[in-house]
Amino acid sequence: MIKIFLVEDEVFALKTLHRKITDLNQDYEIVGTATDGTEALPKIQATHPAIVITDIRMSDMDGLTLIENMKKMHIDALPVIVSGYQEFEYAKQAIKYGVKDYVLKPIQKRQFIHLIETCMNEITDKKAAMHNEHVHNQTNAKAAKTVRKNLLTDLLNCKDEEKIQKINNIEYCKEFLNDKFALCCVIQYKIDENNLDYIDLAIINIIEEILKQENLIQNAIIETYSEGQIVLVFSGCDTEAKLNSIAGAISKAFQSIKVFLKIDVFAGIGDIQFGPTRLYKSFHHACQAANTQTEVISPSFA
């Protein structure tokens, strides 16, 4: 259903417009009318029409001013101007305000039908384009996440310094890791048939919420590493206060997971590492800590 809003200060002209649209087909719905731009603007905001058909000459706020205000307020509706012959040149100036088209009075049925159908086609095309863009962005985001996870997994498992250096030099890798330091944290938990469908996402949501509260989310990469294991990598914040905040946030997440999800969970924080082997060493130490500790331990410089 395409929503249409009508703005016309002549009662007869308004009724004519209303009837012509009503007679077209059931794909169109008139969601409101107004006699000038001042009255129309708040109603347009409230009804969210796809098309606004407005007279160009009105006593209070004219059609061009209405359209200009709609544009300033980011109201996403196709504007159509209705004008008399004497305002023809004036109506053409409305193109700069994003006016889809104009129709001359007296309104001819064939011309009006063509205009509305053109607007409807544009709206349909725009919706399709937005959908395709959304799908494209989702696909790219998914691919980027996969690339990031693969790079991170390679770094966590690689002992070959030459290979690590090559991975570090990949442009995409530079976007989420830097040369200041790297600190790995590991969260380990048991997965069974009762929590298989939700447990990873639930734990990540708890971790992200706590990291946001502690202003640490911008320095963190969170990935599911393997079944029952989530790894966090922090980089770029080498102050002692920030490091203590990380330890505190992981401890809080550790406790929240135990309380809210009622599962056995173990957490470990690796030593802070510098240089090309930093991730592997910190990750290895975090895994050892998670396997042997029941409480979160604070990081230390290696």
Q: How would you explain this protein's 3D organization?
A:
The protein has 302 residues and is an alpha/beta fold. It has two domains: 122 residues, 3-Layer(aba) Sandwich (Rossmann fold), CATH 3.40.50; 135 residues, 2-Layer Sandwich (Alpha-Beta Plaits). It has ten helices and nine strands. A five-stranded parallel sheet has the order 2-1-3-4-5, with helices on both faces. The radius of gyration is 30 Å and the shape is elongated. The N and C termini lie far apart (65 Å). The model has no long low-confidence stretch (mean pLDDT 79).
Topology:
Elements: E1 2-7, H1 11-24, E2 28-34, H2 37-47, E3 51-55, H3 63-72, E4 78-83, H4 88-92, E5 101-104, H5 109-157, H6 161-168, H7 171-174, E6 182-189, H8 199-213, E7 220-226, E8 229-235, H9 240-261, E9 265-269, H10 278-292
Parallel strand pairs: 1-2, 1-3, 3-4, 4-5
Antiparallel strand pairs: 6-8, 6-9, 7-8
CATH-defined fold name of the largest domain: Alpha-Beta Plaits
Poorly predicted runs: none
Radius of gyration: 30 Å
Using the 3D structure, state the CATH architecture of the largest domain: 2-Layer Sandwich
Q: For this structure, what is the CATH homologous superfamily of the largest domain?
A: Reverse transcriptase/Diguanylate cyclase domain
Count of the domains? 2
Distance between the termini: 65 Å
> What topology, given as strand order, has the largest sheet?
2-1-3-4-5
DSSP summary: helix tally? 10
| Broad structural category | alpha/beta
> For the report, how would you describe the main beta sheet?
5 strands, parallel
Overall mean pLDDT stands at 79
SSE succession: EHEHEHEHEHHHEHEEHEH
